[in-house]
C-alpha cells in the first residue's frame, strides 16, 4: 500500500464514520469487517505462535489508515481492539500504546470472544509482558518505553473492577519500573501489590528498598517521594500510528 493509498483510505474511513448512517452499513466498514474475519480465520490455521506474531505484524498496516479515520471522528469498535491485540502480540508497542490509550479512554469493548473487559485484559497483559522484559538477561528498551504506559494504565484503571491478583501484578510492575529512580514511590506500589495478593513475591525487594531509604533519605524527602511528589505519569498526545522502520517494506504490499 502506497502512502497515497493509505491517506485515501484514512480519509474515506473518516468521511464514512462521521456520517449519520450506522458505521456497519458503510461500504468501507463492511469491507474491513470482512477482511478482519478472513484474517482471523487465516491466523487460526497457524500453529506456531512465532509465525502468528509475524503474520499479525504483516497485517497491521492494512488496518491503520482505517483506524486513524475512525479515531479522528471519535468512533471505535472491536476492529480497533482486535488490531490492538495483534499489535501487542507482534510487540509493535508504539501502535499498541496508541490504540490501547484510545480504547480505554473511549470505553471501546474487547472482541466478543474475550470474556474479560478491556481494563482487566490490559492490566494483566501489560504486567506480564513488562515483567518479562525487566527479567530478561539483557533489558529490552521496550520495557523502558512502556514505563509511562504502565503507570498511566494503573491510574486509569483504578476505578475499574478486576481480580485483586491482576491488579497486584500491575502494581508490582509499576514498583519494579520505579525502584531505581523513585524508591519510595516503588515501595508504595509494592505495599499495595502485597496487600492485594499476599503471595506475590516481592518481600525481599521491599526489605531492600526500606533499607535503602533508611540510609539514603531523610524523613522529609521520603515523605515527599511516598506522596508521589516527584513521580509524573506521562501521557501520550494523539499522534499518527507508526511502525518500527524494519516493517516499512511490508507496507508496500
How is the topology of this model organized?
Elements: H1 3-17, H2 27-44, H3 49-72, H4 78-89, H5 93-105, H6 118-135, H7 141-156, H8 164-178, H9 183-196, H10 203-216, H11 219-226
Helix pairs in contact: 1-3, 2-3, 3-4, 4-5, 5-7, 6-7, 6-8, 7-8, 8-9, 9-10, 9-11
Describe what this molecule looks like in 3D.
The chain is mainly α and 253 residues long. The protein has two domains: 3-115, no CATH class; 122-226. The chain is built from eleven helices and no strands. It has helices spanning 3-17, 27-44, 49-72, 78-89, 93-105, 118-135, 141-156, 164-178, 183-196, 203-216, 219-226. Helix 2 (27-44) packs antiparallel against helix 3 (49-72), helix 7 (141-156) crosses helix 8 (164-178) and helix 9 (183-196) packs across helix 11 (219-226). The radius of gyration is 20 Å and the shape is elongated. 35% of the residues are buried. The model is unreliable at 234-253 (pLDDT under 50).
> Largest beta sheet, briefly?
none
Weakly predicted, low-confidence segments = 234-253
Query: What is the distance, rounded to the nearest whole angstrom, between the alpha carbons of the first and last residues?
Result: 5 Å
Please provide the count of β strands: 0
Looking at the structure, what is the overall shape?
elongated
Count of separate DSSP helical elements: 11
How much is the radius of gyration in Å? 20 Å
Mean pLDDT: 81
Helix and strand content put the structural class at mainly alpha
Question: Helix coverage percent of residues?
Answer: 55-70%
SSE run: HHHHHHHHHHH
Give the DSSP E fraction (strand runs of 2 or more residues): under 5%
Count of all domains: 2
Amino acid at each position: 500500500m502506497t502512502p497515497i493509498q493509505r491517506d485515501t483510505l484514512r480519509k474515506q474511513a473518516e468521511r464514512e464514520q462521521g456520517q449519520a448512517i450506522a458505521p456497519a452499513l458503510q461500504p468501507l466498514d463492511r469491507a474491513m469487517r470482512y477482511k478482519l474475519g478472513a484474517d482471523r480465520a487465516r491466523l487460526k490455521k497457524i500453529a506456531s505462535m512465532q509465525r502468528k506474531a509475524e503474520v499479525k505484524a504483516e497485517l497491521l498496516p492494512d488496518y491503520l489508515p482505517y483506524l486513524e479515520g475512525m479515531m479522528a471522528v471519535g468512533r471505535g469498535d472491536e476492529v480497533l481492539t482486535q488490531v490492538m491485540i495483534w499489535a501487542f502480540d507482534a510487540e509493535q508497542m508504539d501502535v499498541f500504546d496508541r490504540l490501547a490509550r484510545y480504547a480505554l479512554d473511549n470505553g471501546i469493548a474487547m472482541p466478543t470472544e474475550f470474556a474479560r473487559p478491556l481494563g482487566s485484559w490490559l492490566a494483566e497483559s501489560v504486567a506480564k509482558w513488562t515483567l518479562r522484559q525487566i527479567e530478561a538477561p539483557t533489558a529490552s528498551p521496550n520495557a523502558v518505553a512502556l514505563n509511562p504506559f504502565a503507570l498511566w494504565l494503573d491510574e486509569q484503571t483504578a476505578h475499574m473492577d478486576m481480580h485483586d491478583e491482576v491488579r497486584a501484578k500491575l502494581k508490582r510492575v509499576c514498583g519494579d519500573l520505579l525502584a531505581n529512580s523513585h524508591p519510595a514511590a516503588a515501595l508504595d506500589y509494592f505495599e499495595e501489590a502485597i496487600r492485594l495478593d499476599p503471595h506475590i513475591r516481592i518481600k525481599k525487594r521491599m526489605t531492600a528498598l526500606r533499607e535503602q531509604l533508611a540510609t539514603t533519605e531523610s524523613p522529609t524527602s521520603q515523605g515527599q517521594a511516598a506522596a508521589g511528589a516527584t513521580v509524573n505519569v506521562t501521557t501520550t498526545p494523539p499522534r499518527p500510528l507508526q511502525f518500527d522502520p524494519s516493517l516499512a517494506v511490508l507496507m508496500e504490499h
